[in-house]
Amino acid sequence: MGQEVVRSVAELRALAPEKAAKGLPVEMEVVVTYVDREWGLLFVHDDESGIYVEARELVKKASWLSPGRKIRVKGVATKGSFVPSMDAASLDDLGMTQMPAPRVLKMPREILLPALDGQWVEVEAVVKRVMQDTSGIKFLLQVQGLDVLMTLPAHEGRTPPPMHLLERRVRVQAVVATTFNAQSQMSGRFL
Question: What's the whole-model pTM score?
């Protein structure tokens, strides 16, 4: 009898940290929601839930990776730094597809829910600041009364920075990411 294979993001996220740390095999077909080749960051979604995938070297080499690209990812489960995740051994291109429907955030401070880590969401925000550096364009947004940083990676090629958005209300679709401390407790949010 073979070892169980994790086949969905929800199943992976639901693993107890001890079980995830055992390196269960993972094989899923997912849609890329965020990729930053310079940093090797990859977030994916399977139409139900989203998650971060540890695949730094694979991401850096995969020039074809982009949001909306459907991929097959194979690897092993890990306990992750904040929620269970996976280390990818391979990424296979399955072609372009539609982005998943975002979870629309409307409730006050809903963006602070820990379960939103890795999720594809839509929020209304006011652009308070626009900055650009070698890593990309950064926006300071006011979301549900909170200041939240949003990053567009440099490879998105949006230059010059969209200064006309300052103090404007915008609707943003993005991946929710989490900063956390050494005890895996959430310490902040960014998009």
Answer: 0.89
